Every structure is written in structure tokens, then in C-alpha cells.
């Protein structure tokens, strides 16, 4: 029998990570935070001083990513980088290198390997369009720029980073633009995706909606 996959794609800070994690928890499924793989690659690249125009070196860094996931913790070569990969600089670099098809190809197999029984919830930009096109349920999660900037602001402050709403809104728009306009795996709703605008929803309400869509598929 096929291992079921639920994909949750959407723009930066749309709440897809929180929703995907909770849906996975409720169903007892595995969870893939695909953005974390791009962030891990970005962190590794920044630390090693690899130039962002050295495509060959960037792809190599992605291919030889030594990472592992342990519950909510993310490790790069055995160092806990759960917090470090959330920095804005890392996210912006991730979005730049994610535009390269060689980097995306280097991370393809790693992403597929997260599909294990009894099932997987995967979040990102191209989970439903490219990585798991045969997913049982595909969700496209959005929220207004204002709602997303406010959420990102709270997240960063809670994690001890400094932040400014105007800068965050501008960065979000830039990143949306880059993620949607790139030629390789651009951010867009997958065919057959269910759309969910979470601007005025709590995370739990969004989780309930996804779970009821999934249950309705039988
Ligand atoms: O989702 P998150 O903000 O952590 O992702 C960081 C960056 O990685 C995104 O801005 C996007 O450019 C890239 N990404 C991607 N494809 C995915 C997940 C993330 O291109 N499936």
C-alpha cells in the first residue's frame, strides 16, 4: 500500500510549519520541514564563505549536507542549529540558493527519504508540485503580508532576535517575489490543491480544517 503524504505549501511565514507539524502530530505521521534543508545549506554556505555565485560549490554543499533531525531539534554536523537557521540572513540566503536547479536537485533524494510509514506531512514551496505530486492531500496555505509580518515579528522576538515590522514586510515581499518568479519549482498552488487563507484563523483552526479535508478523503 502507498504511504500517504499530505503536502502543505505556501509563502514565508504563512503558518504552514506550525500547521504541518500539528497535523503530523495528530495523525502520528512523520514531518518534513523542507525549508529547513535549504536553510541548513544556506548556513553551511555562509559559514564556509562560499560565494553565492559559485553554483558548483553551492550544489556540492547541498549534496554533502550532514544534517539530522531529532524531534524538534535540527543538527548540522552534530551541532544543534535549531535557532541559528531561523535568522533572517539565513532565510534570505536560503531563498537565493533555492532558485538554483542544481541545489534543488541535490536535495531531492533527501526529501523523498522522509516518506516512511505510517505517513508524512511535508511543508515547503514545491512539496505538492514537484517533490510529492502524487500526495493524497495537497494544501496551499496563504495569509496576508500584514498577518505574516506580525507573526514573523512575534516569532523572532520570542526567539531572542531583534526585529522590525517594516523591514520584515519588505523582506517577505522580496522573498515571495523571488520564490514565485524563479523558473525552477516556483511557489504556486499544486493541481488539485485545497486553498486555505489563515489571515484570520488560529493555528488550531487551520489544523482542524486540514484534518477534516484529510478525513473526508476516506
Ligand atoms: O520555509 P522557509 O522560510 O523556512 O524556507 C526558506 C527558503 O527556502 C524559502 O524562502 C524558499 O526560497 C526556500 N524553499 C524552497 N522550497 C521549499 C522550501 C523552502 O525553495 N520546498
Automatic annotation (TrEMBL):
GO terms for cellular component: cytosol. It holds the Pfam family Cytidylate_kin. It comes from the Bacteria. It is an enzyme of class 2 (transferase). Its main location: cytoplasm. GO terms for molecular function: ATP binding; CMP kinase activity; dCMP kinase activity. ATP binds at residues 10-18. Residues 172-181 have a biased composition (Basic and acidic residues). Its EC number is 2.7.4.25. InterPro entries: Cytidylate_kin, Cytidylate_kinase_dom, P-loop_NTPase. SUPFAM superfamilies: P-loop containing nucleoside triphosphate hydrolases. Residues 6-212 form the Cytidylate kinase domain. GO terms for biological process: nucleobase-containing small molecule interconversion; pyrimidine nucleotide metabolic process. It catalyses: CMP + ATP = CDP + ADP; dCMP + ATP = dCDP + ADP. Keywords: ATP-binding, Cytoplasm, Kinase, Nucleotide-binding, Transferase. Residues 172-192 are annotated as: Disordered. It is found in: Cytoplasm. Belongs to the cytidylate kinase family. Type 1 subfamily. NCBIfam families: cmk (TIGR00017). This is Cytidylate kinase. It comes from Herbaspirillum seropedicae (strain SmR1). The gene is cmk.
Amino acid at each position: 500500500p502507498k504511504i500517504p503524504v499530505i503536502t502543505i505549501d505556501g509563502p514565508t511565514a504563512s503558518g504552514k510549519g506550525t500547521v504541518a507539524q500539528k497535523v503530523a502530530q495528530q495523525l502520528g505521521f512523520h514531518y518534513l520541514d523542507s525549508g529547513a534543508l535549504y536553510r541548513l545549506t544556506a548556513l553551511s554556505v555562509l559559514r564556509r564563505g562560499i560565494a553565492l555565485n559559485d553554483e558548483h560549490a553551492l550544489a556540492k554543499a547541498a549534496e554533502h549536507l550532514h544534517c539530522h533531525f531529532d524531534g524538534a531539534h535540527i543538527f548540522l554536523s552534530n551541532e544543534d542549529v535549531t535557532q541559528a537557521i531561523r535568522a533572517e540572513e539565513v532565510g534570505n540566503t536560503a531563498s537565493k540558493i533555492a532558485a538554483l536547479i542544481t541545489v534543488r536537485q541535490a536535495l531531492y533524494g533527501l526529501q523523498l527519504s522522509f516518506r516512511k510509514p505510517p505517513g508524512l506531512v511535508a511543508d515547503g514551496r514545491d512539496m505538492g508540485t514537484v517533490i510529492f505530486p502524487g500526495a493524497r492531500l495537497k494544501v496551499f496555505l496563504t495569509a496576508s503580508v500584514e498577518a505574516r509580518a506580525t507573526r514573523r515579528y512575534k516569532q523572532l522576538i520570542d526567539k531572542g532576535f531583534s526585529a522590525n515590522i517594516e523591514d520584515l514586510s519588505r523582506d517577505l515581499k522580496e522573498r515571495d517575489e523571488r520564490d514565485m518568479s524563479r523558473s525552477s519549482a516556483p511557489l504556486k498552488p499544486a493541481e488539485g490543491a485545497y486553498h486555505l487563507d489563515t489571515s484570520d484563523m488560529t493555528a488550531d483552526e487551520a489544523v482542524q480544517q486540514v484534518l477534516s479535508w484529510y478525513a473526508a478523503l476516506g
